[in-house]
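Practice problem: predict the structure.
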Amino acid sequence: MTLETTTAETGLTERDQLRLVIAGSVDDGKSTLVGRLLHDTKSILPDQFEATLHASQGRGATEFDLALLTDGLRAEREQGITIDVAYRYFATPRRNFVLADTPGHVQYTRNTVTGASTAEAAVVLVDVRNGVSAQTRRHAAVLSLLRVPQVVFAINKMDAVGWSEDRFAEVADEVRALAERVGLEATHIIPVSALTGENVAAPGPDWYAGLPLLDVLEQLPARTTPDSEPFRLPVQLVIRPRTPEHPDYRGLAGRVASGTVRVGDTVTAYPSGRSSTVVAIDGATGEVPQAASGDSITIRLADELDVGRGEVLATEPVRVTQELDAVLTWLDERQSASRQRVLVKVGTKTTRALLAAPHAVWHVDDLEWQDSSAPLQLNDIGRIRLQLAEPVAVDDYAQLRATGAFVVIDADTGATLAAGLTGSDLGSLAS
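Answer:
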């Protein structure tokens, strides 16, 4: 796989970017590992180093505490825990990384959903002394549901067991069994010590034949190419400047969720089903011949269609429905209720909806679905149906992550109640 490309215009090398999430149970060493990655890739500014050194000394530490590089909030430092998703950036000579460090406490599992929802790879830490925990199983289930393409299990604190090859093999067997059970296919299992840095960026023990963690992260397959997915653009805004220079300008603005669109393509707006030809694409610096996933653009069409916010422009059909059979991760401290009136936000479309009672809940300890109509509690993963007041355009999440997810919102307070994934083909957890 080639991680670098050279532009014809400049001759300069461009590194690709990987969105990475780090998860694990309490005290498995996530913040220390993130600090190690920042430290060993020289991604720490001098003032950050000095502030962290003073904070380490203030807590009575005799050495630089790597964990404090990410536990940036005062409340986190005082408690010695991570309580929010911390986004960090670091780079190696071969790749740029956008990293989300998520909390380990069970009550903050919802934050792991947030961090993993856009991730292209994940690192799950497992304390070698304790092996796979309930929270490890929960995080593995969430990563499987969210279809994170690459998952690396880092067996941490190997220095605490004298880098025992036998103990690593035992925990690795537990991890393989878990990954198979929840349907994680592309996995790596690596022994590390975040505290000492062994097998993170530095070499590991003689008995380990694999690459250090950072080398593995550099070589993970990058995101799918834009052309490999169908074009989707949720319309955010209709732009009508009505200036003397552009009296007839009418553009449909939004961020490309997947695929590629080119001038001359025929696109259809869903749910309305109206079609037209793309006559121009306006980017941040002017007209462009095409746009791809992640680009914010304005599309001009040959016909003045009655299309606005909430519709999805596509080059291939999108499913239109008023019923969502979905898997929900419940994120609110208040439990769900049968026939609860909520708002559902799919892409840029928000509509009223009625929440049914769940018909199954994922049991973390047994790693299986269990029939249940009981209300969903905080961090529960349930299978449920929603009846919508209006039709929406939505893809099956297993095929297109960007347009197959939605959010359930409290209609009275605006608080987020749940994150949802559409479709029946959601890997082992949906079977």
